[in-house]
Amino acid sequence: MTADQLADLIERMAARLLAERAVLNRLDAATGDGDHGSSISGALALAVQEIDALEEPSPQAIWLTTAQALLNGMGGASGAIFGTFFLKGAARLQDAQRISQVDMAALLEAGLAGVQARGRAQVGDKTMVDALAPAVAAFAAAADFPSAWRAAADAAAAGAESTRDMLARQGRAKYLGERAIGHVDPGATTIALMFAAAADTHTAE
Ligand code: ADP
Ligand code: MG
After folding, report:
1. Which of 16, 31, 111, 187 could disulfide-pair with 85, CB 3.0 to 4.6 Å?
2. Contact yes or no for 167/181 (Cβ under 8 A)
């Protein structure tokens, strides 16, 4: 992927989350404080603006700008978690101008490791990690770039759905105990939507 394609990717993710903002807020209202859709879509809209304003939109600058928009524009624990995902990926990019599937797999893996180091969530804790971990694994295992995004999107969607029957061990939802059961985690749904948006993006190497 080129820098232009990465910028387009972030834009599509932002548009998708904006379109689903009310759905995500409603999911968060059931297990948290109801702000997730507004805060993630607002922060990504900010990322798109700031990417447009970059003088040298390299892949690393695009990923770093997205990280900073999430860290600053989202606030709270989840801003740090979603921001860390892009921040750790950005550190991997250095001065690369084109991103292969193998590069992207390493980027996503670094992001996931950063998220887990920061938030301490494991698969099964009813967080975005339940969608992200299987998506990253599916991406790395796929044969080529377009099928990697599609496989990751499918794995993320299944991972998000799997949170429905879980008790929460991280985030605000953990205070609900048994009452969290029956509700899909909003952050995991966001990850599924982000990968779905990526799967719709042109990703020729
Ligand atoms: P807040 O809980 O601060 O209001 P959001 O509503 O924006 O933040 O995001 C909530 C989402 O953050 C949850 O649905 C969950 O997926 C994710 N999350 C919360 N805590 C953690 C954690 N420790 N590790 C990974 N993800 C987490
Ligand atoms: Mg919330």
Report:
1. 111
2. yes
Give CA–CA dist 84/91, Å, rounded: 10
Residue 3 and residue 62 in contact, taking contact as beta carbons nearer than 8 Å: yes
* Ligand 1 site, CB within 6 A: 28, 32-33, 35-36, 39-40, 76-78, 81, 115, 119-121, 127-129, 170-172, 185-188
The number of distinct structural domains making up the chain is 1
Indicate whether 204 belongs to any domain. no
| CA 178 to mean position of chain CA atoms | 26
pTM for the model: 0.97
Please, what is the average pLDDT of the chain?
Answer: 95
Residue with the smallest CA separation from ligand 1 atom 22 is 119
Give me the amino acid identity at 135: A
191 touches 127 (CB < 8 A): no
Which among 49, 43, 35, 62 is positioned nearest to 171, based on CA atoms?
A: 35
Domain span holding position 78? 3-199
Which listed ligand is nearest to 70 at the C-alpha?
1
Query: Distance, CA 180 to ligand 2 centroid (Å)?
Result: 14
Residue 202 confidence (pLDDT)? 60
Question: What is the distance, to the nearest Å, from the Cα of residue 2 to the centroid of all Cα atoms in its chain?
Answer: 20
